[in-house]
Amino acid sequence: MNEIISERLDKLGRYFVFLGQLIKCSFKRPFYVYQYFYEIERIGVNSLFIIILSAGAMGMIFALQMVTMLQKFSAEISTGAMVAVAMSREIAPVVTTLMLIAKNGSAMAAELGTMKVTEQIDALEAMSITPERYLVLPKVAASMIVFPMLTLLANVVGSLGSYIVSVNFFGIEAGSYLDYLFTFLYPVDIFMGLIKAFIMGIIVSTICCFYGLNATQGAKGVGDSATGAVVASSVSILIADYILTTLLLRVIYI
User: Fold this and answer.
1) Whose CA is closest to 68, among 169, 150, 177?
2) Of 124, 152, 149, 132, nearest to 205 (Cα)?
3) Which of 16, 18, 115, 117 sees the fewest Cβ atoms within 10 Å?
4) Model confidence at 254, in pLDDT bands (50, 70, 90)?
5) pTM for the whole structure
6) Cα Dmax for the chain
7) Pair 44, 162: CB distance under 8 Å
8) 3-state helix, strand, coil in the chain (%, to 5)
C-alpha cells in the first residue's frame, strides 16, 4: 500500500515538474507556428462531427426528459431555458471534454509514447530540439483554443436539438419557447462553461502528453500510457468541474 502511495506521489511530483518545464519553454524561441495550426486542425476541425453528434443527442435527450417532467406542472414552456442553462454551465463543457479525451487525448499519449519508446524523442534532443516546446506546447495551446470553441458549438447544437424535440414533437409554441430561453439564459452562464472548457483543455492536454512522454516497455507501455492518460484526465476533469462550479457560483452570487 505504501509503495502504491509513494508511486502516485512520485508521478504527481513529476507531473508538476513537467508543467514547470512547459511554462519555461513557452517563452523561448523558436515558435513552431506550423505545429500550432496543425494541432488546431487535428484536435478541433477533425472533431466537429463527433461534437455535433454528441451535443445534439444530449440536447434532445435532456429536452425529452424535461418536457415529460414539466408537463406535470404545466411548465413545459420553460424547457428551452432549462436545457440551455444546463448545457452552457455543465453538460456542454463536460461532454465535449470527454469526447475529446476519447478521440484526441488517447491519440496524444499514444503518439508521444510511440516516439518515446522508438527513441524519436532522444533524436530530437540530439538535434537540440526541446520535445516539450516542439511536441507538447502546440497540443496544449491548441487545446486551450479549441476546447472553448467546441463547447460553444455544443451549446448551440444542444439547444437546437432541444428546440426540435420540444416544438416538433411536443407542440410547444416556438415563439414562447425562444422568449423563455433568451430571458433566462444569461451571458454569465455561457462564460462559466467556456472558462471550464479552457481549464479542462489545459488539464487534458498536459496529462495526456505527460503520460505519453513517460511511456516505457515498448508496445505494452504505449498502450498502458494511453489507457492511463484517458483514465487520469477523465477523473481529473470531473474533479475540476466540481471545484470550478463551486468557485464560479460563489463569485457569481456574491
Assistant:
1) 169
2) 132
3) 16
4) low
5) 0.90
6) 70
7) no
8) 90, 0, 10
